[in-house]
């Protein structure tokens, strides 16, 4: 049996965890507590500091730039040269600078150490002020000013909170979740509505603030309650002699409130039937403790207190929501933060008092809102709100990474740092204008947080493929001395992410095949492997281009109807070439000459698993040519060159304009925008039918009145978008190159999906 | 007498559970109220307290006196000649309604209460006094009417007539307000509730009562929107009520009676226990228009060990009272706004001898609604359910 260093390493790590729980000697902690330079990353370029100091946690925010490598392709000048033996284009790795937001959360006890570290590593001297918010900002003002030599500029707590809230709602697709107690997925993530306003923010700190947010800048305190987290903590400490908030919650989760509370059935002997009030409802909180001579357990009292406070807050929130006619209520504040116990009771209360009409919603980055808001206040001149930002999965710890409920052992651990990083995206992201209903568009077909079987399968799948990916990453940079060292680091990091996701599938929002792929890209980028497949793609593009002419010639020799079928088959066969699917990469690695024709022969015979080819053919035959087709291309090499381009060519000759959409950055062997430019250029040189490609997709799609969308490949047409409804005709095609998935969909490996859809008028 | 029970009106709730099969149908519409045989009781068995109203006929003719069976007479004498019964029963003499005419009979209405946990003893007493031989009906409301029904039957050989508590409550409120409090007004309010010096209790004329929000604060709290005698709905309720105040006080201070808890509260200072807006912001929180004196976090100061050690039991009792009261005020205010009602009537035994809470409610409603909402109170605080039950017995007055 081959050595699996990765798994052994994890086994050691697990053993350490167990050891700490039972004995806990100091040396083991080192394996968990990250060195500060892995926490406060990229400090050398940091600027625009902000700090949010709460009752027990400090959140630090800063803006920084990250220099990382990107793979660039550049066309050779082929004029007059023999291009037979030259590669198609040159690949170079260049440095690129992108903006990144860093947010770090740690316990207040570390504040001094952290400030010292920052001071020592802060190179940027432009920074003069630090924005500060939170109740503790005042208390630590002098310390911060002394340590950092920065002027502390205080910002209003609630303004920061709401600014931060708007920011995450706009930028993080799976920010919002509902809590479900008795389901396999405790956390049910919501798709963000394009319009986030208006909403109600119920912040449960020591007291409760209820704020109505109407626009980016318009919000109003509409009410509150003095019965909040401070009441739970203060009253709880008096009743149980337990000092810490977390310990009180632990007590509460073990208690029986029915020993302390007077229930409806205690008064009625059963349910209050005329009002339909269940016998188990609480008639009077602490109604059974109206006696001096009975002892009550700490656990029971804590539980009763928790119910009392959660129910009360839920009731008031519902009353305010009703009065202001709002149905989105987000809960935050230290009472909620990462505590399933309180999320459960609040959810119950909201559901009860709204009779199921309102759902309690929570935010994945709730703890960071104040820091994000304070940061935004300080960074107004950089206009961060102008850009789209995306969560960097490699640099972010994920939801509840430090929660005692998930890792009970970690409570003994003192130094817990939680990180959240966001990258500025190259361009603002918008919805495809052709989506039928952007607000209900859920790209991902299977929610792996929800589907335990599929989750296990895919996590294992990504684990098994990991060694190969790491190997390929190292091989993609043969000239780099430390490539294999970095590849190993990448392997470890991604392996750890996968283990985290096994335990907490909800750590980064809804877990999907797409998010697993994204996480892998983020981890690869982190260790400077911008495009491990660049060489493979280069080679494949070269091989495929050589065959283009002959493929076109053989297509042109066919009659019209035969040709249409050959084009679709070509498109599908081209899609068999996908390094992402293990079955194919096995064949490709062992038989590099695996040809286009062979791929065609592997395809399922008609009728396909999903087969609306006849309708498509009918449409081409009877209908007028489409005005403009938008094609989302998948893989480089044979797929784009021998599959997609002949199809594009046919559309163009029918008088249909074509927009070819490719990834802006690398993902596996997907064809990137810059590669596609070179490929197109070369094809255009050979074939006068194909002219050019366009950018500015959303604008273009509108301008050209796109009336056909073609989506190809497993990733784009099956893992995502399979159920996406569009305003215009669409064609979703893919070959299922994964036997598990094929099995699940009721087919065999290399089954064909050909889904032609016409929107109903 | 059973027939009278069936002439019940009002409320959307189901009809009382009357053993109807035993009633000769022919009697139903012919029976007059004065056919209802004595004694006349109305019983409200709550989670903490049992409220009993007893109508003592003062126009008993010599003939009637002669006919009055011995144990009926002894009940009458026992109830009217004592102000305390056993160790826990109490007659609220100051609430007695004199010279009341009820169903053609003149008499006094007595208000008696005892703890619910003494209910078995009460039933036992009824059994010993052969109450069942009087062939009277015991009309009862409150949760205990259901809970103790079986005990009444087995221990006391008594069939309870169970009545809906909200129906009874509203009937009782409307009736008592209409007859007045021995020539005085039943309903009152606090003028200048925000000014400790000038604050005074003044009568309020509730002649045209609808719509009103009725907040009944017993062990728990029920909030009803009343649009007419027959048309009302329960808007919501909260489990943070009188039972919570008393229960928490017992745990925090070791007190053992409601009176003791209130007494302690009257000598305490809640601002030592609660975190106020000014404790956090140094003054008003202007961004949100919050005054510095407002409570930001009830018991918020108790998060600190030093402060926990420096507060007195009285402070804790006061903070508990203020917390529960403010919360009820807040929920009532939100309900009033949602239902578009501006008169809020607070009843229930939580308010008994509890001026602190009443003034706080009056103040809170006035302040947070900017004078739009008015808090009203009734002298017979917790007895309306029992009165309603008595009225049901008499077939609606």
From TrEMBL, chain A:
Homodimer. Interacts with PKM. This is 4'-phosphopantetheine phosphatase. The keyword Transcription regulation does not apply. Its main location: cytoplasm. It comes from the Eukaryota. NCBIfam families: panK_eukar. The keyword Zinc-finger does not apply. Keywords: Acetylation, ATP-binding, Coenzyme A biosynthesis, Cytoplasm, Hydrolase, Manganese, Metal-binding, Nickel, Nitration, Nucleotide-binding, Phosphoprotein. GO terms for biological process: coenzyme A biosynthetic process. The lineage of its organism: Eukaryota, Metazoa, Chordata, Craniata, Vertebrata. It comes from Apteryx owenii. Residues 462-747 form the Damage-control phosphatase ARMT1-like metal-binding domain. Its cofactor is Ni(2+); Mn(2+). One of its GO terms (cellular component) is cytosol. Pfam families: ARMT1-like_dom, Fumble. It is found in: Cytoplasm. It catalyses: (R)-4'-phosphopantetheine sulfonate + H2O = (R)-pantetheine sulfonate + phosphate; (R)-4'-phosphopantetheine + H2O = (R)-pantetheine + phosphate; (R)-4'-phospho-S-sulfopantetheine + H2O = (R)-S-sulfopantetheine + phosphate. Phosphatase which shows a preference for 4'-phosphopantetheine and its oxidatively damaged forms (sulfonate or S-sulfonate), providing strong indirect evidence that the phosphatase activity pre-empts damage in the coenzyme A (CoA) pathway. Hydrolyzing excess 4'-phosphopantetheine could constitute a directed overflow mechanism to prevent its oxidation to the S-sulfonate, sulfonate, or other forms. Hydrolyzing 4'-phosphopantetheine sulfonate or S-sulfonate would forestall their conversion to inactive forms of CoA and acyl carrier protein. Belongs to the type II pantothenate kinase family. In the N-terminal section; belongs to the type II pantothenate kinase family. InterPro entries: ARMT-1-like_metal-bd_sf (IPR036075), ARMT1-like_metal-bd (IPR002791), At2g17340_3_helix_bundle (IPR035073), ATPase_NBD (IPR043129), PanK_long (IPR015844), Type_II_PanK (IPR004567).
Automatic annotation (TrEMBL), chain B:
The keyword Ligase does not apply. Pfam families: Fumble. It catalyses: (R)-pantothenate + ATP = (R)-4'-phosphopantothenate + ADP + H(+). Pathway: Cofactor biosynthesis; coenzyme A biosynthesis; CoA from (R)-pantothenate: step 1/5. Its EC number is 2.7.1.33. GO terms for molecular function: ATP binding; pantothenate kinase activity. One of its GO terms (biological process) is coenzyme A biosynthetic process. GO terms for cellular component: cytosol; nucleus. It is an enzyme of class 2 (transferase). SUPFAM superfamilies: Actin-like ATPase domain. Keywords: ATP-binding, Coenzyme A biosynthesis, Cytoplasm, Kinase, Nucleotide-binding, Phosphoprotein, Transferase. It is found in: Cytoplasm. InterPro entries: ATPase_NBD, Type_II_PanK. Homodimer. Belongs to the type II pantothenate kinase family. This is pantothenate kinase. It comes from Apteryx owenii (Little spotted kiwi). The lineage of its organism: Eukaryota, Metazoa, Chordata, Craniata, Vertebrata.
């Amino acid at each position: 049996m081959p050595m699996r260093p990765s798994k052994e390493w994890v086994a050691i790590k697990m053993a350490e965890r167990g050891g700490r729980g039972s004995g806990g000697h100091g040396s083991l902690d080192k394996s968990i507590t990250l060195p500060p330079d892995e926490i406060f990353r990229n400090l050398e370029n940091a600027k625009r500091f902000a700090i949010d100091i709460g009752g027990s946690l400090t959140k630090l925010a800063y803006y920084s730039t990250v220099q990382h490598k990107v793979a660039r392709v550049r066309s050779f000048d082929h004029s007059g040269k023999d291009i037979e033996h030259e590669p198609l284009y040159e690949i170079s790795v260049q440095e690129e600078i992108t903006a990144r937001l860093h947010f770090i959360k740690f316990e207040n006890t570390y504040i001094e150490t952290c400030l010292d570290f920052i001071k020592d590593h802060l190179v940027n001297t432009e920074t003069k002020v630090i924005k500060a918010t939170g109740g503790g900002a005042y208390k630590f003002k002098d310390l911060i000013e002394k340590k950092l030599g920065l002027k502390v500029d205080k910002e209003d707590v609630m303004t920061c909170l709401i600014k931060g809230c708007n920011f995450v709602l706009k930028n993080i697709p799976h920010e919002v979740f509902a809590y479900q107690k008795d389901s396999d997925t405790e956390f049910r993530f919501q798709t963000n509505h394009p319009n986030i306003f208006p909403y109600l923010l119920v912040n449960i700190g020591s007291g409760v603030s209820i704020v109505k947010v109407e626009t980016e800048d318009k919000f109003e305190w509409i009410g509150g309650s003095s019965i909040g987290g401070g009441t739970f903590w203060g009253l709880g400490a008096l009743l149980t002699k337990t000092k810490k908030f977390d310990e009180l919650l632990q007590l509460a989760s073990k208690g029986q409130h029915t020993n302390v509370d007077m229930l409806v059935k205690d008064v009625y002997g059963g349910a209050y039937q005329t009002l339909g009030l269940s016998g188990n409802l609480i008639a009077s909180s602490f109604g059974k403790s109206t006696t001096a001579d009975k002892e009550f357990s700490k656990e029971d009292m804590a539980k009763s207190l928790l119910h009392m406070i959660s129910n009360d807050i839920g009731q008031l929130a519902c009353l305010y929501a009703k009065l202001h006619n709002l149905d989105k209520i987000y809960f935050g504040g230290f009472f909620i933060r990462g505590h399933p116990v309180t999320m459960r009771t609040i959810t119950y209360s909201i559901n009860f008092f709204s009779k199921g009409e309102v759902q309690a919603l929570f935010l994945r980055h709730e703890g960071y809102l104040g820091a994000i808001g304070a940061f935004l206040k300080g960074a107004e001149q950089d206009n961060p709100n102008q850009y789209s930002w995306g969560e960097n999965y490699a640099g972010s710890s994920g939801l509840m990474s430090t929660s005692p409920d998930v890792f009970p052992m970690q409570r003994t651990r003192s130094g817990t740092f939680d990180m959240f990083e966001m990258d500025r995206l190259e361009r603002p992201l918008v919805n495809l204008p052709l989506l039928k209903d952007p607000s209900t568009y859920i790209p991902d077909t299977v929610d792996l947080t929800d589907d335990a079987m599929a989750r296990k399968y895919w996590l294992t799948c990504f684990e098994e493929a990991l060694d190969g990916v790491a190997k390929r990453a190292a091989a993609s940079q043969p000239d780099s001395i430390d490539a294999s060292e970095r590849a190993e680091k990448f392997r470890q990091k991604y392996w750890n992410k996968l283990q985290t996701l096994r335990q907490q599938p909800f750590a980064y929002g809804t877990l999907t095949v797409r998010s697993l792929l994204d996480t892998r890209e983020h981890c690869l980028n982190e260790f400077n492997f911008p495009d491990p497949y660049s060489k493979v793609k280069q080679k494949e593009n070269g091989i495929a281009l050589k065959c283009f002419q002959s493929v076109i010639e053989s297509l042109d020799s066919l009659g019209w109807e035969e040709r249409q079928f050959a084009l679709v088959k070509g498109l599908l066969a081209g899609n068999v070439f996908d390094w992402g699917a293990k079955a194919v990469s096995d064949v490709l690695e062992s038989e590099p000459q695996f040809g286009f024709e062979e791929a065609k022969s592997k395809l399922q015979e008609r009728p396909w698993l999903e087969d609306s080819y006849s309708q498509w053919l009918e449409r081409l035959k009877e209908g007028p040519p489409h005005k403009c087709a938008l094609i989302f291309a998948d893989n480089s090499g044979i797929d784009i060159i021998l599959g997609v381009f002949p199809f594009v060519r046919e559309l163009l000759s029918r008088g249909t304009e074509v927009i070819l959409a490719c990834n802006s950055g690398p993902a596996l062997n997907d064809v990137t925008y810059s590669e596609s430019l070179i490929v197109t250029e070369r094809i255009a040189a050979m074939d006068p039918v194909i002219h050019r490609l366009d950018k500015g997709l959303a604008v273009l799609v509108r301008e050209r009145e796109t009336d056909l969308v073609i989506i190809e490949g497993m990733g784009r047409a099956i893992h995502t978008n399979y159920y996406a409804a569009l305003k215009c005709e669409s064609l979703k095609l893919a070959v299922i190159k994964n036997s598990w998935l094929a099995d699940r969909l009721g087919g065999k490996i290399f089954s064909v999906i050909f889904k032609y859809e016409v929107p109903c008028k | 007498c059973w027939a009278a029970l069936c002439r019940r009106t009002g409320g959307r709730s189901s009809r009382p559970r009357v053993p109807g099969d035993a009633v000769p149908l022919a009697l139903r519409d012919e029976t007059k109220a004065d056919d209802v045989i004595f004694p006349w009781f109305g019983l409200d068995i709550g989670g903490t307290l049992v409220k009993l109203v007893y109508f003592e006929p003062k126009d008993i003719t010599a003939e009637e006196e002669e006919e009055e069976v011995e144990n009926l007479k002894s009940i009458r004498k026992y109830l009217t000649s004592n102000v305390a019964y056993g160790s826990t029963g109490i007659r609220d003499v100051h609430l007695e309604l004199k010279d009341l005419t009820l169903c053609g009979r003149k008499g006094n209405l007595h208000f008696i209460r005892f703890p619910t946990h003494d209910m078995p003893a009460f039933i036992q007493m009824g059994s010993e006094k052969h109450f069942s031989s009087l062939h009277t009906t015991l009309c009862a409301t409150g949760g205990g009417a259901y809970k103790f029904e079986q005990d009444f039957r087995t221990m006391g050989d008594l069939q309870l007539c169970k009545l809906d508590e909200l129906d009874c409550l509203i009937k009782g409120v409307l009736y008592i307000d209409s007859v007045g409090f021995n020539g005085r007004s039943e309903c009152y309010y606090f003028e200048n509730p925000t000014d400790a010096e000038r604050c005074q209790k003044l009568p309020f004329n509730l002649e045209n009562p609808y719509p009103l929000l009725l907040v009944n604060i017993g062990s728990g709290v029920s909030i009803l929107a009343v649009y007419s005698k027959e048309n009302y709905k329960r808007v919501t309720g909260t489990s943070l009520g009188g039972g919570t105040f008393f229960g928490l006080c017992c745990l925090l201070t070791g007190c053992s009676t409601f009176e003791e808890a209130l007494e302690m509260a009257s000598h305490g200072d809640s601002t030592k226990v609660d975190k106020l807006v000014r404790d956090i912001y140094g003054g008003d929180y202007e961004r949100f228009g919050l005054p510095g004196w407002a409570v930001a976090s009830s018991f918020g100061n108790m998060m600190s060990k030093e402060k926990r050690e420096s507060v007195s039991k009285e402070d804790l009792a006061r903070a508990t009272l203020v917390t529960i009261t403010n919360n009820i005020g807040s929920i009532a205010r939100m309900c009033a706004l949602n239902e578009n009602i501006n008169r809020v009537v607070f009843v229930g035994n939580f308010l008994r001898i509890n001026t602190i809470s009443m003034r706080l409610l009056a103040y809170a409603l006035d302040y947070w609604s900017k004078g739009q909402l008015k808090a009203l109170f009734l002298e017979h605080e917790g007895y309306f359910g029992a009165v309603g039950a008595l009225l049901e017995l008499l077939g609606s007055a």
